Amino acid sequence: MTAPDPLRAARALNGAAAGILVLEGIAVLFVPRGIAQTEAGLTGARLTFLLALSLVLILASGVQRRSRGIYIGTALQVPLLLTGLLNSVMWFVGGVFVLIWLYLLQVRRDLLGSPFRAPTSAPVPDDGDGGPAPTT
């Protein structure tokens, strides 16, 4: 099944991807509080990594309208999931976000034909005579 208007569907899915990345960035900002209460504690390197990851996730939401945006968002799912090494709860939270991202890619594949390819053009209106509809 493909979308009747692939460009509109692509814009909607890019907006959903951007929203997911913003939520991921916010979720990463909660990790330092959990790490600070552990035995290992919150070191400068851990805090820098988490703040940088959060910033990159939020900035990546801004490039979702570009053709490479979905690639960047997909690549950022790996460090998000690896935050579970810092705080075990993030295995679950990161895993949920990765599953949501995979679902989004599945919906993109169903509606656009490919999870990563952008639609090439808008459909040509048809008036039923086999040729393009006249424009007025």
Question: Care to give the gist of this entry?
Answer:
The protein is mainly α.
**Largest β-sheet summary:** none
- Low-confidence runs of at least 5 consecutive residues: none
Give the proportion of residues in helices. Answer: 55-70%
- Class by helix and strand content? mainly alpha
Tell me, briefly, the overall form: elongated
* Share of β-strand residues: under 5%
Radius of gyration in whole Å, from Cα? 20 Å
- Strand/helix succession: HHHHHH
Description:
With 136 residues, the chain is an all-alpha fold. The protein has one domain (6-112). It is built from 6 helices and no strands. The protein has helices at residues 6-29, 31-36, 44-61, 69-75, 77-82, 89-112. Helix 1 (6-29) packs antiparallel against helix 6. The longest helix has 24 residues, at 6-29.
Outline the secondary-structure elements:
Blueprint: H1 6-29, H2 31-36, H3 44-61, H4 69-75, H5 77-82, H6 89-112
